[in-house]
Amino acid sequence: MTIKNKTVDYSDGDAELQAYVAWDDTHVGVRPGVLVSHAWRGRSDFENGRAQELAKLGYVGFALDLYGRGVLGSDSDENRQLMQPFLDDRKMLQNRLLVALNVLTNQPMVDANKKAAIGYCFGGLCVLDLARIDADVLGVTSFHGVFSPPDNTVGAKTNANILVLHGWDDPMATPEQALGLADELTRMDADWQIHAYGKTTHAFTNPQANDAGHGLMYNANADRRSWDAMTSFLAEIFA
Fold first, then answer.
1. Cβ–Cβ < 8 Å for 188, 157
2. To the nearest 10°, the Cα dihedral for 215, 220, 221, 224?
3. Closest of 188, 190, 217, 185 to residue 202, by C-alpha
4. Whole-angstrom Cα distance, residue 56 to residue 124?
5. Kind of pairing between the strands at 139-143 and 60-63
6. Which of 13, 103, 120, 237 stands 20 to 30 A from 194 (CA)?
7. Per DSSP, what are the bridge partners of residue 217?
8. How far is CA 153 from CA 71, 89, 162, in A?
9. CA dihedral for 137, 142, 143, 149, sign (positive or negative)
10. Distance of alpha carbon 1 from its chain centroid, rounded?
11. What pLDDT, on a 0 to 100 scale, did the predictor assign at position 1?
């Protein structure tokens, strides 16, 4: 196995963007492609590392960029300022995600008929929006995502399989909101799963998360269990 990586420049209107792509260079032919949608800080080493791990599983990992080439928040206030315009305009967010999906589809090592998306925190909301607009993906996986629905998908249906990996004590996605998401996905006629982890808060996959007061804590067990669940999910939808 030889994991290769590269950056890919692309654009959405005036926004100049840059993705990170990882794949196994010893693999012959095309293979499934998986978008990795970043948390509120922007595309970082964390998302790049997840793209590499996906490459080790035999996929093309594509860590997308929503904010712009080289743009990375330095603190919570800056992260929030970067994210907020996309929360205020979900149509803009969805369009930018579709641009990234199109760039992934056009990578020469990607099977255009086998694509999925995973996302973390804000990225978890993003991939749920891909499902909500019935984008050309077989499935999406949200890790400790935010559940608030957009206002432009009421009554929508989806063909995407949906896996939600959720810390039950997450202050940013309460048990009531998780139940609301289940109701929404049922109305969308989705094939959905929600895995809830007890004694687990937000950002449970991030080893740097260490702020119990704000409900941001790494949890090694939930990290491992959620990755295993995603691995099985991807194997199922790509079979």
1. yes
2. 120
3. 217
4. 22
5. unpaired
6. 103
7. 210
8. 29, 13, 16
9. positive
10. 25
11. 84
Q: Collapsing DSSP states into helix, strand and coil, what is residue 178?
A: helix
pTM of the predicted model, to two decimals? Answer: 0.98
**Tokens in use for 102?**
């199109």
Q: What's 3-238's CATH class?
A: alpha beta
Angle (CA) 77-79-82 rounded to 5° is 110
Q: Please give the order of strands across the beta sheet that includes 15-24.
A: 3-12, 15-24, 60-63, 31-37, 110-120, 139-143, 161-167, 191-197
- State both tokens at 76: 């919570």
Q: Is the separation of the CB atoms in 102 and 183 below 8 Å?
A: no
Helix axes of 122-132 and 90-105: crossing angle, nearest 10 degrees? 80
Q: Which residues contact 207 (CB under 8 A, 6 or more apart)?
A: 218
Q: 143-188: per-residue pLDDT in tens?
A: 999 999 999 999 999 999 999 999 999 999 999 999 999 999 999 9
Place of tokens 């039950």: 168
